[in-house]
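Today's session is about reading a structure prediction critically. Students often jump straight to the picture, but the first step is always the sequence itself: look for stretches that repeat, for charged clusters, for runs of hydrophobic residues. Only then move on to the predicted structure, which in these notes is written as discrete structure tokens rather than atom positions. Here is the chain we will use throughout the hour.
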Amino acid sequence: MDPRLAKSAQLGDTNALSALLDDDPLILERIFLSPILETPLHIAALAGRVNYARKILSLKPSFAEELNKDGFTPLHIAAATGNIEIVRDLLSLNFGPNLCLLKDMFGLNPLHHAAIRGRVSIIQELVSCCPISAKQVTAQGETVLHLAVKNCQFEAFRVLVKFFEDDDDDGGEVMSSRDKDGRTILEIAMATKQVQVLELLGFQGSNTEKDTNTLQEVLSENQYESPKPTETHNGNSDTTQAATNQEKRIWEDVEQMVLVVASLIATVTYQAGLSPPQTIWKEDMKKNSHCIFHHKRKIYTNPSCPDVTYYLFMPFNTSGFFASALLIFFYRNRSYVRVLLPIALISMMITYITLSVSMSPNALSLLVLYLITLAIFLYCVLAVEVVKKVIKSFFIFASERGRELSKLAFERHKYGDSSAEQA
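Below is the predicted structure for this chain, in token form.
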């Protein structure tokens, strides 16, 4: 969209709009050619410029049906910001009732946004124009009543309840419906202790079998989990249902990986426990049954008794085996994975270090070994960072070069057009 057009919409300058149209009669049509569709009507609705919005609607009524990058129509924006005049102007169009049924990318229609923010007058206008919109549910299975209760909008809830009580067709079904978490509006009101909502409902449709109790007894005894208020979304929001689903898919992959790792650790530690390495345990040690009863100082000096590394190797090897075995059973439980997986991995690391100590001929050899290992590790880390920087620099250079070539081609094309006009 032309920046001048966007600025005029933000300021509500109808004179500037007229001047732009005189200069370029197709300036409004060109908006459909932009990669991101954001009409002047969206901006005017967000800024609350009523007169400007009316003029745009008179020139281009189809803008009322357009969705911006967040999936909002101008009616979504006007309903959320509480601009009743723009809402009425939009609903007065021939296709006004259809606008009430359009949903954004999160499954919310304009009435849902009005209920979340408690816009009572706008709720009345929307319900009067399109009663069907009150029966639509969000991507989370929430009705407009769920949204009003979750966001503690009692006045909005009261107006909606009156509407559904007067509806003889589906009003009762909507009132008793459950969201995707399986909660009714009554259960949510009990969890959040909204006394006014509970009194308005009169405990009708309660599944808690506490109708004969007093209100305070019900509130003190309910064990429903308190729901979180509905989060409003915009282009910068990271908390969406898509992100939640993605997290679930990632964790499913992690579960499979944990199961494979646990199986490998259990196999290795089981084999190492049955057949310890020769540097840890020798065959002739099995014949000497007095080693563990000797004084510690004698144990280490007796060649037929295990060395001190044995008493490090076996406990950590055993803990790694049992941790991995339990992990195979409880790999779907995140709490168990967070505890058992580090135990199994750390135990494996300590047993490996113990073996390397027992196999080294002297302390200097061991030091050299780990210094080389550390150097290799640092080299790999630095190499990865260098490669990342090189790739990033390449893409930045290619992008800048592409912009320069595009600009040059545009200037040549413009120069050729002007030369042709002069000729």
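Discussion point for the tutorial: The domain at 3-221 is CATH 1.25.40.20 (Serine Threonine Protein Phosphatase 5, Tetratricopeptide repeat).
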